[in-house]
Design brief:
9-stranded mixed β-sheet
């Protein structure tokens, strides 16, 4: 599969490259909210809003001026103004988070807005499988989350991850990004992309949050779900490789990927010119 970056029009403004609403974070997981928001910006999205609880917003605002922070209770009326919604990174599964998650999906159920569901969002769906999902939804499970979604044993998934990716896609009507040492992307029309970039540096907390934001950021730039997910997975893995060359596979942190995403993009730009 040939991977291509979205075109950057010279006559443009922040709206040209899309607006992402990232609903993420909870009391103990402000880092997930930060990583999934910043990575969307790092791949070229024009505008990212983080919706979360006050303690998370204060923490994230102290780390960067680049993310718009709004209380999660104020976003319901604002959903239509966003090009992409990402939800789930660091969300938790407490009763309030579950109620909010269900309410957001209910409001989006008849829209064409792409929705990336990650982490605890997937765990909530696995507990309440009859939740009505949006029409254009992307799931980003790791192996354990895929086990809960597909009702398969982990060892069975590891033996045949392509089968599981297809099963989740068919069951939920989603694009599936099954994260593993060779991440698999499966589209609703059964296209498959198997990623070959990445290394053990990515086996660390927070790297999945970075990938979630990258997918959302490319979706905001009008890529379709399969192309956006495949490109994000490739560049995410390559960023991990580039980071490891300097920091070693032992020492790369999820936050380090934010520095190396631009280097992975630059490498692809040069490659496409040659």
């Amino acid at each position: 599969m040939d991977l291509h970056l979205p075109i950057r029009e010279e006559k443009s403004h922040k709206g040209t490259f899309g607006k992402v609403l990232n609903i993420a974070g909870s009391k103990n997981f402000s880092g997930a909210a930060y990583l999934s928001s910043m990575s969307a910006l790092k791949v070229g999205c024009g505008y990212v809003t983080l919706a979360s609880i006050p303690s998370v917003l204060l923490r994230v605002a102290s780390l960067t001026p680049d993310i718009v922070c709004v209380p999660v209770g104020e976003i319901k009326s604002q959903l239509p103004k966003y090009d992409v919604i990402s939800i789930g990174s660091g969300l938790s599964q407490d009763p309030g988070a579950i109620l909010m998650f269900k309410a957001i999906l209910f409001d989006l159920k008849d829209t064409e807005t792409p929705v990336v569901i990650d982490a605890d969002g997937l765990n909530i769906i696995s507990k309440f499988p009859k939740i009505k999902l949006p029409k254009n939804v992307i799931f980003t499970p790791h192996i354990a989350e895929a086990s809960r979604l597909s009702r398969q044993k982990v060892e069975d998934i590891l033996r045949n991850p392509r089968f599981t990716a297809k099963k989740i896609t068919e069951k939920y009507g989603c694009t599936t990004v099954l994260k593993s040492h060779k991440t698999i992307v499966c589209s609703k029309d059964e296209k498959i992309y198997t990623n070959t970039t990445g290394n053990s540096a990515l086996a660390k907390a927070g790297t999945g949050d970075v990938l979630c934001g990258m997918i959302a950021g490319f979706l905001a730039q009008k890529m379709d779900a399969f192309e956006a997910s495949s490109l994000a997975v490739h560049l995410h893995g390559r960023a991990g490789e580039l980071a490891s060359e300097e920091l070693t596979e032992y020492s790369v942190l999820a936050s380090d990927l934010l520095k190396y995403i631009p280097k992975a993009i630059q490498e692809m730009l040069v490659s496409n010119l040659s």
